[in-house]
């Protein structure tokens, strides 16, 4: 019974947390980061101020939680399905995961908040980079380094290769959305963009079984 109640309370707490982060994102976009108070966020989320302050004692802590949750909302690119082996399959899986992650309206909203407030609140940019983009980037870099170490790819500069791969996808999926309110490519078009990025990576970094250096 105690375990059941605990699980029930955890679900309620999680729903309230999600309501708070959704309300904060909406208000940050509408009113700006500086123009949004924690009290107003609590009102928008329909939670008590004590509930909000218990989870997020400061607005900065709330923003950092939003960044962390949004970037962890997608599958882990270092999951077993993308371990060293089939480079095409691994890159395809990572590419689709990344496209799904940055293609969500919530991710575009997060970038808009950071860009709009960066001149006055540079710490928002640091949070977005250090808590969100950088950990994800490093996980993909480690995957490419593992492929290189396993001999299934030739990637002497995994950092540069990661920039190239994720950049090709973001340039189609995310950045047009920042300027075009109606940018919403069809899943097939997103899939094609990912496939093209994978093909480019294979041409540059792939190593076939017939490669004399493959041993």
Automatic annotation (TrEMBL):
InterPro entries: Homeodomain-like_sf (IPR009057), HTH-type_TetR-like_transc_reg (IPR050109), HTH_TetR (IPR001647), Tet_transcr_reg_TetR-rel_C_sf (IPR036271), TetR_C_Proteobacteria (IPR039536). PROSITE patterns: HTH_TETR_2. Residues 14-74 form the HTH tetR-type domain. The keyword Ubl conjugation does not apply. It comes from the Bacteria. SUPFAM superfamilies: Homeodomain-like, Tetracyclin repressor-like, C-terminal domain. Residues 37-56 bind DNA. Keywords: DNA-binding. This is TetR/AcrR family transcriptional regulator.
